[in-house]
Design a protein that fits this description.
The structure holds 2 protein chains of 2 kinds.
Chain A lengths: L8 E5 L4 E6 L7 E8 L6 E6 L4 E2 L4 E4 L5 E6 L8 E9 L13 E6 L1
Parallel strand pairs in A: 1-9
Antiparallel strand pairs in A: 2-7, 3-4, 3-8, 5-6, 6-7, 8-9
Chain B lengths: L4 E3 L2 E4 L5 E6 L6 E7 L6 E7 L2 E5 L7 E4 L6 E5 L8 E8 L8 E2 L3 E5 L1
Parallel strand pairs in B: 2-11
Antiparallel strand pairs in B: 1-3, 3-8, 4-5, 4-9, 5-6, 7-8, 9-10, 9-11
Classes of the chains: A mainly beta, B mainly beta.
Chain lengths: 112, 114
C-alpha cells in the first residue's frame, strides 16, 4: 500500500471548516483513500473513503486531486467533539489485502 | 448497543503472566481483526479472521501470541509470558466480507505489564 504524509497537528476554530490534507504521491490506480479518526481513549472510527471522485457523507467531504496524489478531508462545521487524531490510509480494496496500515495521523484540536 | 465490544477494558499484569482478551464483533460481520497500538503511534495490524479461519498474521505476532475464533463469532487473543514491551492498547475490529468494506473498531483493551 502507498505511503501517506500528514501534518503532525492542526488547530481549527469551533464552527469553522477543518481542512485536513494528506499526500499520497505514490498511490496506484486501484488504491482507495480512506479516512479514520480516533478520539482519545476510543477505537478508530471510519469517516469516509473514495477512489477518484469527490465524496460526501453526513460526517465529512473528501476531495481528491485529479492526479490522485493528494486529498483533503473537510469537516464543514467543526465542533469540540471533532478533536481527535485523523488518519489518512491508502489501501487496495481487494481480497487478500484486508489490513489497514495506519501512520501517525494528524492531531486536530478544535479551539472554542 | 450492537457495536464491537471488548473485554476487559483494562488489564494490569505482572511480567511473565499470561493474559487473554475477548472480542465480540458486530453479529453479521464475517471478518474480525486484531491491532495493537502503542503510545503516540497508529494501530498496527496483528491478524485477521474470515469466519473461523485465520487468514493472515503479521510478523509482530510472535509465538507468544495466539488468536482464535473457534465458532466464527467471538475471538480471543492470548499473550503468554507477558513482557513489558507488550504494554499497549489491543484493538479489535470487524467488517462484512465485501471487498473494501470499512472496519468497525471496538473500544480496545489497555494492557499494562509491570
Amino acid at each position: 500500500d502507498a505511503k501517506t504524509t500528514q501534518p503532525t497537528s492542526m488547530d481549527c476554530a469551533e464552527g469553522r471548516a477543518a481542512n485536513l490534507p494528506c499526500n499520497h504521491s505514490t498511490i496506484s490506480g486501484n488504491e482507495y483513500v480512506y479516512w479514520y479518526r480516533q478520539i482519545h481513549s476510543q477505537g478508530p472510527q471510519y469517516i469516509i473513503h473514495g477512489l477518484k471522485n469527490n465524496e460526501t457523507n453526513e460526517m465529512a467531504s473528501l476531495i481528491i486531486t485529479e492526479d490522485r496524489k493528494s486529498s483533503t478531508l473537510i469537516l464543514p462545521h467543526a465542533t469540540l467533539r471533532d478533536t481527535a487524531v485523523y488518519y489518512c490510509i491508502v489501501r487496495v480494496a481487494d481480497f487478500g489485502n484486508e489490513k489497514l496500515t495506519f501512520g501517525t495521523g494528524t492531531r486536530l484540536t478544535i479551539i472554542p | 448497543d450492537t457495536g464491537v465490544s471488548q473485554d476487559p477494558r483494562h488489564k494490569i499484569t505482572k511480567r511473565g503472566q499470561n493474559v487473554t482478551f475477548r472480542c465480540d464483533p458486530i453479529s453479521e460481520h464475517n471478518r474480525l481483526y486484531w491491532y495493537r497500538q502503542t503510545l503516540g503511534q497508529g494501530p498496527e495490524f496483528l491478524t485477521y479472521f474470515q469466519n473461523e479461519a485465520q487468514l493472515e498474521k503479521s510478523r509482530l505476532l510472535s509465538d507468544r501470541f495466539s488468536a482464535e475464533r473457534p465458532k466464527g463469532s467471538f475471538s480471543t487473543l492470548e499473550i503468554q509470558r507477558t513482557e513489558q514491551g507488550d504494554s499497549a492498547m489491543y484493538l479489535c475490529a470487524s467488517s462484512p466480507s465485501a471487498v473494501g468494506y470499512e472496519q468497525y473498531f471496538g473500544p480496545g483493551t489497555r494492557l499494562t505489564v509491570t
